[in-house]
């Protein structure tokens, strides 16, 4: 109980102290050093050696003990030096769907000295070890699960090193200013309802016959194959794509209100699934959200805009990004 | 194999560390330890390679049991230090078979440090310290190797020597200022292996055995002149019990402290410092009669200097002797004891001595001397073997013997003649190190002589060896025995064998001086020396100044190593191209074109072109070279070219160019 409260306070203090930054050079204000477990063992060893030196009245054991102790003290600076001046800069991130793994790239620059065995990462996902030569720059990619839609800010990064003698552990927390755009997880909510009464839904038939059949066009690379006219292709004709009146003429409206039977997050997930579906079908689609209206269109940019709108819906961060 | 995450080279470093730590211990370990290590290391290597599996618990337990039994059989005791170290070493070896993760790896390395420290219990010579330094380097390398994905000896060595060198000053300060006090509890001492030199019994052949050894017994430095060779009788133990062949110490009851006052009237005190060589010491050597302060030493009724608890290592003490002062303590019991002879031995000796019984005690001694001088006695290291009646065989048969034969037969004769007498063992003489003004006493200087009780004079030293071989006493064992092939024969490579060559002799004495100072100042550093140093540094230091001085002395080395480690960073933070570029900007600044904070080089160059078009060609080159340098890999040829160009351009900067133009004018 108390431990939890203390931990919370500690967390709060840490997050106040460690502000999100885009780029950071590790300095004394964020480098912590303490004895590692091996170091504690080493200290115990020193105590035993000291007692041994006293009991045997042996000056050489005294000298040896003091030397090891001095080593321990001097190593503080070397442990610190391994971190000090190391630069870390946030790189790009890729948008992901909620529940997927977000990849955050990161640059590490060694600058003035070699950096040995620096572990970096999020404690809950495991740290990776990095070696940098003097002046070297490395790009890393760190992975973390993005649970919720919206802008996901990966937790504080932990850097840790036991170099050079493992007696001391130096660590640092860095909050990099990463923002991963997380789309809602797509969950198929059912067929897209017809918004303009006359047309049937975007059902897919494998034959060109039907009321809304409007002709063929030649397959363009990148186009969805769902409406390919395979029968003709099998006979040696070029690959043809069936056009239906609806898909050409009428736009699909993906409407927040159409999913009134679902909860808000489920609605967003449903809309997300529809966006993906329409994009795959190459159907122009528009998105209607309370307070947001995206006119029907198609293509990568439109898709990204729609998904972003869904991701940021009611998160308070909507516009700027 | 999944458990082991160390790299192959880290494992090799661990093996190297183990070998380096175990090898110097081998002299005190059972020899099979080396074999066991090799087998276990091979076994672990197989495990590491994935060929074999880790042994099960049953196997490791039974192996440990076998090791314990092996050690027990080898030493037959667990109370001494050697079996304890042996057990530690076997644990250190067998732990390999459980080495499954990094933690075990660290544990092994920590144990290795401990074993290095253990070696100092057995030896404190400079050689041991050099070995330990080597071990320490290997251990530090082994420790670092765990952080390296591949073998990188150079950077590891560089790092090792950096931390090594930086920790020396701090270590020295701690060594000097750390308070030295007595043991917290008594500890087992090294056993027989550390006991060389004089034994506590004397049978024919015992002392001559020592003459084969060139080992040092102790060093003594006198505050004044070193006394002449014949007076250097280093009195050790008194042997009072004779069983017909061997002389023994009387261990009958607790040794009583001496009660008689030392009559030192009119005698010059002889002050000197003795440092006994490494080993376990429960008795001390001095020129009798003497006083020794400290070290828990006391003098018993036989004028032997004993310690209350055994001292280990190199024992240093200061003594004051009054040569010539009589040894007057002799109770009736002691005197009776010193007349006892076993009944069934040496009838001829008894018969000879019986004929002197009528004489005055001092005359009986003179008779004995006359006997030794009248017969063809030979002083030799290689006497023939003696039978049951060893004294008879010697006195009336072989007549060839070493000091123990002479001392033994003389004391036997005296006792048979009714004069209380006893054997004293110790050392006689010593080798002068003129430059160092001290005396080296070797095991080969071991000697035995007699003491007789003369009423009114007390115990008087009589050395029958001196009658037969005056050279031994006048010139020392080195010269008296130089012709004997057995002399120093244990140490074929000993430099002492070449004392005939003066260069080698000088070299040896020089080396010994180094060792002697080492022993005096480092190995035997104690609270006295500590106080010496501190009071030499500060006049009348009080506690506060001392505490302050200690703090400063500790802080300064730390500060220096911090600066050494971290200030490079400041100096190197500025990349050369940035430095050069900024200097060029500085040249422009002097002409009123200051670069704004955060102004990009491109923007600045454009502004320069607008505001000072005449400088634009030059500064465009600077900007171009700077950006080229910034985007090249440091150290590449393109980078060095760009840097060179920047340097050239900096030299051709506006202010300098004008300067250069003005000069010829």
Give a structural overview:
The complex is a heterodimer of chains A (321) and B (665). Chain A is built from seven helices and 17 strands. Chain A is of the alpha+beta class. Chain A has two domains: 18-183, no CATH class; 197-312, no CATH class. In chain A, the strands form five sheets. Chain A has a five-stranded antiparallel β-sheet. In chain A, strand 10 and strand 11 form a beta hairpin. The longest helix of chain A has 25 residues, at 59-83. Chain A is elongated. Chain A starts with a helix and ends in a 9-residue tail after the last helix. The model of chain A is unreliable at 196-204 (pLDDT under 50). Chain B has 665 residues and is an alpha+beta fold. Chain B contains 24 helices and 19 strands. In chain B, helix 4 packs antiparallel against helix 5 and helix 12 (390-398) packs across helix 13 (403-416). The radius of gyration of chain B is 37 Å and the shape is elongated. Chains A and B meet through helix 2 and helix 3 of A and helix 5, helix 6, helix 7, strand 11 and helix 19 of B.
